[in-house]
């Protein structure tokens, strides 16, 4: 157990799956809480028999979906003005707003899925999606899909790399960029394929 910091072990010993739920839920409502770290730690502790990995992942999926839906509702009710007026208090700078705008202009509703894998956007993506006027049904589809893929991937990483916490932290720091590059590559291939099919008709 020496691989995982002692304070994390103590926290999970007291509250168990609630740590994963609270961390992921609060992060997805728009608060700068380390939800990814909570999921990683829960999965790492599952490796040592303290928790169950399927339950850790299921808890994270549920928390991510519920948190994002609350964030979406806040964005829908408060609108863009809310994000611009009070975003700075929770780290939503003008630069991050502009980053989300560029993502949304380029990828549309798929931004909700992509944002799940980008640290800055994961926190505020649902709020800004709600403020954008995106339909709830579209949001829910990409939100749930992203929650399942993200929770499963991060949970698996935490479980497999549990004995090397420092390596795990460094690796996770790169996951947002790696995931974005992979998704971008898939999107580019899909666009080329559509163009090829169109030209053949």
Please summarize the sheet with the most strands.
none
Element string (H = helix, E = strand): HHHHHHHHH
Number of strands: 0
Helix content: over 70%
Number of domains: 1
**Any idea what the radius of gyration is?**
18 Å
Structural summary, described in words:
The chain contains nine helices and no strands. The chain has 201 residues and is an all-alpha fold. It has one domain. Helix 2 runs antiparallel to helix 3, helix 3 (35-47) crosses helix 8 (136-160) and helix 4 packs across helix 8 (136-160). The longest helix is centred in the last third of the chain and has 36 residues, at 165-200. The chain is globular, with a radius of gyration of 18 Å. Mean pLDDT is 76; it is low at 174-184.
Summarize the structure.
The protein has 201 residues and is mostly helical.
Chain-wise SSE layout:
Elements lengths: L5 H10 L1 H13 L5 H13 L5 H34 L7 H14 L3 H5 L3 H14 L3 H25 L4 H36 L1
Helix pairs in contact: 2-3, 2-4, 3-4, 3-8, 4-7, 4-8, 5-7
Output the keywords.
single chain, 201 residues, mainly alpha, 9 helices, 82% helix
């Amino acid at each position: 157990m020496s691989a995982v910091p002692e304070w994390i072990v103590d926290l999970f010993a007291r509250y168990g799956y609630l740590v994963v739920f609270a961390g992921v839920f609060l992060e997805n409502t728009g608060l700068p809480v380390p939800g990814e770290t909570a999921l990683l730690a829960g999965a790492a502790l599952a490796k040592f028999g303290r928790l169950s990995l399927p339950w850790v992942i299921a808890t994270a999926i549920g928390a991510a979906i519920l948190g994002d839906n609350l964030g979406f509702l806040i964005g829908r009710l408060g609108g863009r003005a809310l994000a611009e007026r009070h975003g700075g208090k929770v780290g939503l700078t003008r630069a991050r707003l502009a980053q989300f705008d560029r993502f949304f202009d380029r990828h549309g509703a798929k931004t909700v899925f992509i944002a799940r894998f980008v640290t800055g956007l994961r926190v505020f993506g649902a709020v800004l999606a709600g403020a954008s006027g995106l339909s709830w049904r579209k949001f829910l589809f990409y939100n749930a899909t992203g929650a399942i893929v993200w929770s499963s991937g991060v949970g698996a990483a935490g479980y497999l790399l549990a004995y090397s916490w420092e390596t795990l932290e460094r690796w996770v720091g790169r996951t947002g960029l790696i995931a974005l590059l992979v998704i971008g590559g898939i999107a580019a291939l899909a666009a080329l394929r559509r163009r090829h099919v169109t030209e053949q008709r």
